[in-house]
Fold these 3 entries.
Entry 1:
Amino acid sequence: MSTFYFKKIFEVAIIKYAYLPKPIIKELYLVNEAIRFPKVMVILDDGTNLGVLDIKKAQQEADNRNLDLVCIAPNAQPPVCKILNYSKFKYEKKKKDKVAQKNQKIVELKEIQLSPVIMEHDFNTKLSQALKFLEQGNKVKVTIRLFRRYMSLKDQAIDIVNDFALKCGEIGTTEGKKPILEGNTIQLIVSPQKKKPAKKETVEKQEENIEENN
C-alpha cells in the first residue's frame, strides 16, 4: 500500500476523534449561567448579605467584582448564592477534604481465633495481639470454630471466649452480653473503650494543692 493511502486513513481517524463526544465534567455547584432560579439570596465572600436579588442583578454584582456567582444552597427558600472566586473556592474545599480524610480514623475488624483446647501460652499470645489491636482503635472479633471432634466442648469454648473478653476489659468492651453461636462458630466482638475526658479539678482542690505546695 502507498504512503498516500496510510496518510488518508490517519486523517480520517483524526477527524473521527475530533467529533467524538467530549466527557461531561459535572460541577459540585451551580455556577454563573448554570443558575436558573429567578431570585436568589446573595452573600459576598466576606459575609455581607446583599439580600434577595433577581438572577440577572446577582450575576451583574458578581461580574462587577470579576468574581463568580456560586449557588451554595439550592434547596433553600430562596436559594442562596455566594459571590467568590470559584477556582480558589474549589481548591480550598479540596484541600480541606483531603485533610479531613487524612484525619479520619478507619476502624478495622481484626479476628482472633482461639481453640477450645488452647494452651495458656497461646492464650496469652493471642491476648497480647488483641490488646494491641484495641489500643490502635480497632475492633476484635474473638472466634472459636468447633470442629467435629470438639462439638462436645461447646460450654468450655464459651467460657474461654468470656475469659478472653474479660481480660480485654481494661481497654475493651463487648458488643453484646454473651458470645454468639452461629453454626459451629462461637464469636464475640470486643470494641475499644471510648476515652473519657479527664475531669477538671475544682477551684477548691486547686487551691488546696497550691497551699500544700507552699
Note: The first strand starts at residue 30 and ends at 31.
Entry 2:
Amino acid sequence: MPGARVKVRPFCRGIRQMRDVSGQKGKETFMDIASAKQQIRETIQIYLAKDEAGHYRIPLTHQRPVFLIGAPGLGKTAIVHQISSELKIGMVAYSMTHHTRQSAVGLPVIVQKEYDGVSYAVSEYTMSEIIASVYDCMEKTGCREGILFLDEINCISETLLPPMLLFLQYKMFGGHRLPEGWVVVSAGNPKKYNRNAREFEVAIIDRLLYMEVEPDYPVWKRYALEKKVSGAVLGYLESHREHFSVIEKNAEYTAVVTPRGWEDLSENLRMREELGLTVDGNVISQYLQHPEIMREFAAYYRFYQRFKGRLDVTAILDGVCTEETLAAARAADPCERIALTGMITEALTGRMGEVMAHMEKLRQSKNRLQETSPDGGIPEDEKQRYQKRLAGLKEEQRRTQDALGAALRFLTEAFGEGNELGIAVSDLAMAPQSAAYLGQFPHQTWMRAAASGSLPAREEKLLERIAANRKQKSGGDETND
C-alpha cells in the first residue's frame, strides 16, 4: 500500500547524498514511494543481470540488501509484493520477531570427518528454516529467482546479531548459502514505534541500502484512487491531511491512525453500505484508534451520506441538473465542495473504467474471430454480432465523453476555475482507469483545464502521451467536446 516518502541515508552505497561542486554537503534526498519502489525494482534487476556465460554480473556477496524503515501501516510489505509480481519472480516473506539463533541458523549436528587419516567428530548445522523456505518456494512455483523479504529485521534477538551480520554480507546461515538469483529485502519499524526494535550498529548499516520511509498523502492518494478507496475517506483526508498518519503515545493510551487503517476502513464501509449495515463510532474506532480523529470522521461520514442523498450526481453527469442543485453547490462550504467534487470524479472514473473494460473484451473477441478464421472467412452472423457490440461501445464512449464535459461545466459554473476543478482534473489524471480512458479518448475541455492548471509531473506525462497519440492519428472518430 504505497503512501510514503523515503529519506535516503547519506552513508548508503548505491543511493548517496548529493554534494554540489563546492564540496558542501547537500540536503538529504527525499523521494515518494513510487520513486523508491522504482529504485528497489531497478536494484533487483541489476542484481539479477547476467553476463554472456549466464553468470550473475554482481556476486552475491556484493549485493547489498535493501532495508526499509518507517512507521507501521505505510505499506512497506505491499511494495515488495508488487515488485515480485511485476518482475514475475518468486517471493518468500519471513517475520524475524520470533526467530531464535537455532531456527534461523539451524540446529547443530555431529558428523564424522577424516583429516590426515584420523577420524574426528565435527559440528555442522542443519539447513536454516529460512533458507529451506526459499528452496520450497522454488520447487512449488518453478521460480529460480526471487525476493527473500525479512520483516522486522531490527527486532532480532541479541544472539542472532552475529549470524545476521554474516548473512547480510555472505547470504549464508549456518554454512548454507541463499541460492543465487534471490535478493534480500528487509523492513522494520523505528524504536519509537516498537520498543523491541534496536538501532543497528555501523557494521550492519554499512552492509545495507538503508531507506527511511515517511507518510505522504499525495502519493497514497494516487494508490487509493487505483484501489477505489471510499469517496468519504478521500474527501475527509483531502481537507484533513494531518490525520492521514498519526501515532501518539501518552500516559493514558496509544493513538494510532495509519494509511493501512484508512484503506481497511474503506473496505468495511463499502461492504456495510452494500449490505445495509450501520456505520457508527464503534465500527470506525476499530480502524481509527484515535478518539478525536474517530469522532471527526464519524461526523464527516454522516454528513457525506446526507450530502450524497441531497445532490443527484447522475443528473449532473447527464447534464440535466436543476438550478436548485447548482445553487446548493454554490452555497456549500469548502468541505462540502471537496466532497461533491470527489463524488463526481468517483462516478466519472467508474464510467470510464467500464468503457475501457468493454473495449478490452471487444478486442479479445476480435482476436478470437481472426484466430478461428485465418483466411478471413468470418461467418456473417459473427460479423454482425461484433459490429453490434462495436456500435454499443461507441455509444457508451460518446455518453461518457458527454458526462465528462457536463461534469467539468458544472464544476466551473458552480465553483469557477478554482481548487475544485483542479482536484477533479488531477484525480482523473491519477486514477489508472480514467487515465487510461483519457489517453485513448482525449477530451478538449479536460485538456484545456489540465494545461491551464499545475498537474504533478507524473500526470503531465498523460498530456504528452495524448498529444503524441493525436499526431499519429490519421483518421477515426473525433472526441466530443
Note: The longest helix spans residues 334-372.
Entry 3:
Amino acid sequence: MDFIVNNGPFIKDKNNIQKILLTNLFLLIPFIIYKFYIAGINSIIIFILSIISILGTSIIFDYIKYKNININKYYKDITFSIIITIILPCNTSYIVLLLVNIIVTTLSKFYDIINIYIISSFLICLFTKFTNNNLIYNNYNIYIYSLLLFISLIVLVINRSVKFRICISYILFVIIKLLFNQSISEIDYILLFMSIYVIPEFKSTPNTAFIQIIFGITIGILTIFLNIEYIFLSIIILNVVFKYIDINYSYFLAKY
C-alpha cells in the first residue's frame, strides 16, 4: 500500500484549542460566582484546593520534564478547576479531592484524550459517597441557571467551540427526565451543566456527526435511569466505546 502525502489545500479553522478554552473560561465565570454565592465558603475551599492540586501538578510536571513554564498553557487547568468545583457535591472530601486531582492531572499528561472532568468527578464522588453514604448538592434558581446555560450554548455554538449535536441530543433526554419527575432536583442542574461543558469534551468524544448524535442519545437514555456517580462511569465507558466506533466508521467511509 502506498501512502501519498498531500500538502493542500486544506480548510484552516480559525478556532484553536486555546481560543476554545478561553471562551469556556470566560463563560464559566458567572457559574463559579453563582456557585460561591449559593454554596458559600465550602465551594471556595474546593476551588482553591482544585487550583492548587491541578495547576500545581501541571506546573511541576512541565518544569521537571521540559524545564520550562509557559503560563499560556494552563488555561485548561484553570477551566478544569472551575468545572470540578461546579460539579462536585458540597460534602466532598478535601483529601480525596487533592489526591484524585493530582493523579488524574498527571495521567492526562500521558493520555490527553481522556475526559479529565468526568474521571475526576467519578472518583471523587465515588469515594465521597463511600465515606459519607450520600452526595449533597446545592439547589439553584431555575431562571438564573437556565439563562446562564442558554447564553453559554448560543455563544459556544456560534464560535464553534462545542459539539452541539451531542449537547442537543443529550439535553432532550434530560428534559424528558424532568417531565417524568415533574420537578427539577439538585442533580438535574449538574446534568444540564454537564451537557454543555463536560459531556461534549472535544478530544474524548466522536467527531462524526451521526456518531455524535447516537453518543448523546445513549448517554441521555442512561441518565434517565442511573444515579449521578453511575452516569459519570457510563460516560467514561461510552467515551472509549464510541471513540473506537467513530474511528472505524470513518475508516469504513474512507475505504468504501
Note: The longest helix spans residues 228-255.
